[in-house]
Amino acid sequence: MDLLKKYKNVYDSNIVLMYKGEVTFDLVTSIIETLEERIGEIEQDRIIKKKFYGAATECIQNLYHHMDEVSEDQKISTYDSKAGLLMVTARKNFFNIMTGNFIPNNKINIIKGKIDNINSLDKEGLKKLYKEILYNGEFSDKGTAGLGFVEIARKTSQKLAYEFHTINDEYSYFTLQIRVPRQRKTDKELAA
CA-CA distances (angstroms) from residue 15 to 25, 98, 119, 127, 181? Predict the structure, then answer.
């Protein structure tokens, strides 16, 4: 094992925040406040900070709202089924937000379908989908209408990267990776 190489990777990643554990309402508030403070120290551009903050808030709320999909009595081998993972890193050109949580296997196709649809849309398509969900969407028992992924894509103008890692016949581990660019597009790039 090349420890120096591992050190360099961690050092170059500039970890802003890393958390693994149960995600509670109070913790969500604390993490969002901590991120706002830390990003304020790193990033000077107000619009980029706003985009990052919006995307990070949606990711954290997504973790919070979906932690209860794994029943209390269900043990997932040696894993803590209620543990979520959040890691935020700052690179020169982008902020990277990664989340992970357990989900029932019967939800994979639904989540995959939603994200693949979102990834296939352009800016106008995302705006239309957002309005459609907002006006026609049914709210779940968690009080959400499924706008989180759409909001993340709209705020970052990036595709959502995800993976499902099978744990057993009932559960998988869902990872989501978001990049928030640290440079604004020029007028010429916006017109293209």
Answer: 23, 11, 27, 32, 16
